[in-house]
């Protein structure tokens, strides 16, 4: 009798415990942000490196903290205590200190343009007088830059550069020839912004005497346009009856790029000097970077095929340029090299992080262009370069030294003799260093441990935890959440690939489950990390689906040979590896081989479409905003990996889904936004026509006025609800 009572008690406890466990719902990811970890907004190191600031209370305060103690020191900016606020600004969304920290440039009322560019209303806040004054008399501006002496701000408006002298409150035009879809000064054109990853093309000299900038003449670049409807979020009333049209310059592969030139504006003389950077008729200038010498302007120049890079130094007075470094590669130079060429404060050296020995490492050169040494080495990759501490003569960087799936923070001396790990063991770390490299704020997590944000010193000693996300951890204990499991397998070609699985709740190896493969697969990308993150796919796992992601050839952190194996035949090996993944999964006893699906966005959408034409292993595929023909995509990205269509026509055509429409198998669902400025809606429309003429049935959905990210109002929730239902009904 007692035994029966005890068993009954245990059973009731189990039922009670189960009833207390919540189920993950789609709205947790698309609407509520239930599992979104806390972060620190607007963190900026102050000049002395002992303090940092953050943006708080809904953008109404900028608060100063001590790195050493983590305690609040003072409120530097409080919108409620501004003495002069002519526009009655209620909050700001971003800020930048002047170099002497006497003023703060703040902004709000942001209007997005493309991925990185935006217009905003900017204000200058004077810390001494507590006055907030508009940067310009009317309208919005772009990319304002304080001069190093803190007395001026250069900014762009309507494709022209303006200079405001803060002491006198006067503004003057630096350029006057700016014109939409023709001439751009100081900001990049569309393709530079998207593919070289920046939104400002001007730089102050260290003495504030000169302002260098790139001028883009896109007159001969062909124009692309797409319709705009009234829509909602935002609503465009002017298009209520007759649609409008957005027009901009977009150079497709093999077509003309902008003509570029480098100029230096002298503030005192108000003269503009053109730098003689050689033949720029078919070249790129993706970065300008002043050295610590005001008479040496660094210019990074790439040839059109992006397999030759020159680091040039220009004299701003004469315009004469000398080449310090030339890098030549048989395939291509990865885009991340551009931000990892740095001049050192001693004025005698510069470094660049590149794959000279097949892996991404630090290389030290003199200012005469003579190589001193390779500072780091080994069969592992530096994945982010943080900078150089001139006092300690130490370099700081992030690397996947322990495994391509992990990231650690390291310090190495200038001689390269000793590398010290500064971050916690395992998982994924990313750092923000103080200005003097005495401290760094590290964000660490693993696939199963929520992010922890903490301050460390430059010896790796933990100083203080700023955010442990304990609230999220407690919340997760209330839910039944599936977990990531990492695995590797070897393809029939002998290539070892890394992947992860998210198994369904209550996983039973004796059962067979449907599989959804999720991937991006683009060059240099990486999806398989030992890092915290929960998304829509976790919801699918709770519904009985096995989620699998595998990084195929061409992805990052595994060395040059693995990365560049896809050169000149983009898509071939990447799709082969996803098909090999499906074949491997089909052999597992707990996988239903008749129910394997694949999905992806952008390059991942391209990969989905391609896989369904190369293999009958996939029951369904969902392709969001896919490239379907590489001839439709832009010059910089496409030619980096394929050269031009004129030079490599088969590389473009053999692995473009549009040319394989007649071979499509399985059910394909195409999704695209009509206002996608990146992967044009043209890709889906032309592909759809090929499928129709080939007699292939498919599904398709179009989002009006949505760009490549497909968001706004209820859009994201609608998108993932629709994709979920498609999977439930067809997989």
UniProtKB/TrEMBL annotation:
Gene3D superfamilies: alpha/beta hydrolase, Dipeptidylpeptidase IV, N-terminal domain. Keywords: Glycoprotein, Signal. Residues 1-19 form the signal peptide. Residues 98-447 form the Dipeptidylpeptidase IV N-terminal domain. GO terms for biological process: proteolysis. It holds the Pfam family DPPIV_N. Residues 536-730 form the Peptidase S9 prolyl oligopeptidase catalytic domain. GO terms for molecular function: dipeptidyl-peptidase activity; serine-type peptidase activity. The keyword Signal applies. This is Dipeptidyl-peptidase IV Serine peptidase. MEROPS family S09B. It comes from Thermophagus xiamenensis. The lineage of its organism: Bacteria, Pseudomonadati, Bacteroidota, Bacteroidia, Marinilabiliales.
């Amino acid at each position: 009798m007692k035994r029966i009572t005890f068993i009954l008690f245990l059973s009731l406890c189990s039922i009670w415990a189960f009833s207390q466990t919540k189920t993950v719902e789609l709205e947790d990811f698309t609407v509520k942000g239930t599992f979104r970890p806390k972060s620190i907004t607007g963190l900026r190191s102050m000049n002395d490196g002992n303090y940092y600031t953050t943006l708080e209370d809904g953008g109404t305060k900028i608060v100063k903290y001590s790195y050493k103690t983590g305690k609040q020191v003072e409120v530097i900016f409080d919108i409620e205590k501004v003495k002069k606020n002519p526009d009655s600004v209620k909050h700001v969304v971003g800020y930048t200190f002047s170099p002497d920290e006497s003023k703060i440039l703040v902004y709000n009322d942001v209007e997005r343009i493309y991925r990185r560019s935006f217009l905003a209303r900017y204000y200058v806040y004077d810390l001494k007088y507590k006055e907030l004054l508009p940067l310009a008399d009317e309208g919005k501006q772009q990319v304002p830059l304080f001069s190093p002496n803190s007395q001026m701000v250069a900014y762009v408006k309507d494709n022209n550069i303006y200079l405001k002298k803060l002491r006198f409150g006067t503004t003057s035009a630096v350029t006057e020839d700016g014109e939409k879809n023709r001439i751009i000064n100081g900001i990049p054109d569309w393709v530079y912004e998207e593919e070289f990853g920046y939104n400002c093309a001007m730089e102050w000299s260290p003495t504030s005497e000169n302002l260098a900038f790139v001028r883009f003449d896109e007159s001969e670049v062909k124009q692309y346009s797409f319709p705009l409807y009234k829509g909602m979020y935002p609503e465009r009333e002017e298009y209520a009856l007759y649609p409008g049209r957005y027009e901009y310059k977009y150079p497709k592969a093999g077509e003309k790029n902008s003509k570029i030139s480098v100029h230096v504006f002298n503030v005192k003389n108000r003269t503009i000097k053109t730098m003689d950077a050689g033949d720029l008729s078919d070249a790129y200038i993706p970065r300008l970077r002043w050295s610590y010498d005001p008479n040496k302007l660094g210019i990074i120049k790439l040839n059109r095929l992006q397999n030759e890079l020159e680091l040039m130094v220009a004299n701003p007075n004469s315009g004469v340029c000398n080449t310090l470094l030339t890098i030549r590669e048989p395939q291509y130079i990865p885009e991340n090299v551009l931000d990892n060429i740095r001049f050192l404060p001693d004025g005698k050296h510069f470094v660049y992080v590149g794959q000279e020995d097949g892996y991404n490492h630090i290389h030290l050169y003199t200012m005469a262009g003579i190589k001193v040494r390779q500072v780091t080495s080994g069969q592992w990759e530096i994945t982010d370069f943080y900078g150089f501490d001139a006092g300690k003569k130490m370099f700081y960087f992030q690397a996947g030294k322990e495994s391509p799936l992990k990231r650690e923070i390291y310090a190495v001396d200038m001689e390269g003799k000793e590398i010290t790990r500064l971050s916690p063991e395992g998982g994924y770390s990313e750092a923000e260093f103080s200005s003097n490299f005495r401290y760094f704020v590290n964000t660490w997590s693993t696939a199963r441990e929520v992010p922890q944000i903490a301050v460390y010193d430059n010896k790796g000693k933990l100083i203080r935890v700023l955010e442990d996300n304990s609230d999220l951890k407690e919340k997760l204990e209330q839910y039944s959440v599936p977990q990531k499991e990492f695995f590797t397998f070897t393809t029939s070609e002998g290539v070892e690939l890394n992947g992860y699985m998210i198994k369904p709740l209550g996983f039973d190896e004796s059962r067979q489950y449907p599989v959804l493969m999720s991937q991006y697969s683009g060059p240099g990308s990486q999806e398989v990390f030992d890092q915290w993150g929960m998304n829509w796919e976790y919801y699918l796992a709770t519904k009985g689906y096995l989620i699998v992601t595998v990084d195929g050839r061409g992805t990052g952190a595994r060395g040059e040979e693995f990365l560049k194996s896809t050169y000149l035949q983009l898509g071939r090996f990447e799709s082969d590896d996803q098909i090999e993944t499906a074949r491997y999964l089909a052999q597992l006893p707990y996988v239903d081989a008749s129910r394997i699906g694949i999905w992806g966005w952008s390059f991942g959408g391209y990969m989905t479409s391609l896989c369904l034409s190369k293999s009958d292993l996939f029951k369904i595929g969902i392709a969001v905003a896919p490239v379907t023909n590489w001839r439709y995509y832009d010059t910089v990205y496409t030619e980096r990996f394929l050269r031009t269509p004129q030079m490599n026509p088969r590389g473009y055509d053999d692995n473009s889904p549009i040319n394989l429409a007649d071979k499509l198998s399985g059910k394909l669902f195409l999704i695209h936004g009509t206002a996608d400025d990146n992967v044009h809606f043209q890709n889906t429309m032309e592909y759809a026509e090929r499928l129709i003429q080939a007699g292939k049935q498919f599904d398709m959905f179009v989002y009006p006025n949505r760009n490549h990210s497909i968001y706004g109002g209820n859009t994201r929730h609608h998108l993932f609800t629709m994709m979920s239902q498609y999977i439930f009904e067809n997989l």
